């Protein structure tokens, strides 16, 4: 029975519900706008980002130790071609933000979306950014609660 139902389904959307399909011109315009938005997000995320060597110096560890932290999920790195950069938001004084590893592990998106989210004011955090909130007493727990609200389980 399920095979019969699947055979009768089409890839066409019900225009009464969704409206007409976009034209090729509309799709191309939407792709261009998406690419501009993505490039802007990458540019913002990499603004002020640290090299592996700069991060090592700031943390008082070797560049290899920085790489190990990235590999183990303790630090976040963004790759642009062959170059990796560590977004500055994850550093606080001469250390990483409290709870950072748990935040990286819990966040449901990738490195770029986490960077954008962590540096944007959040109504769930009284208008503070998640990165700012991590520096406050009880901040890691509040940020993890905000992340939980982003997951499908919260919907």
Sequence of strands across the biggest β-sheet? 1-2
Unreliable residue stretches: none
Report the radius of gyration as a whole number of Å: 21 Å
Q: Can you summarize the main beta sheet?
A: 2 strands, antiparallel
**How far apart lie the N and C ends?**
31 Å
User: How many DSSP H or I helices?
Assistant: 9
Which class best fits the helix and strand makeup? mainly alpha
The percentage helix is: 40-55%
SSE string, helices as H and strands as E: HHHHHEEEEHHHH
Backbone shape: globular
Number of strands: 4
Task: Produce a short descriptive summary.
The protein has 155 residues and is mainly α. The chain has helices at 2-8, 15-18, 24-46, 52-59, 63-72, 100-106, 111-118, 130-134, 139-150, and strands spanning 78-80, 83-85, 91-92, 95-96.
Describe this structure as you would to a colleague.
This protein has 155 residues and is mostly helical. The protein has nine helices and four strands. The strands form two sheets. It has a two-stranded antiparallel sheet. A two-stranded antiparallel sheet has the order 3-4. Helix 6 (100-106) runs parallel beside helix 9 (139-150). The longest helix has 23 residues, at 24-46. The chain is globular, with a radius of gyration of 21 Å. The two termini are 31 Å apart.
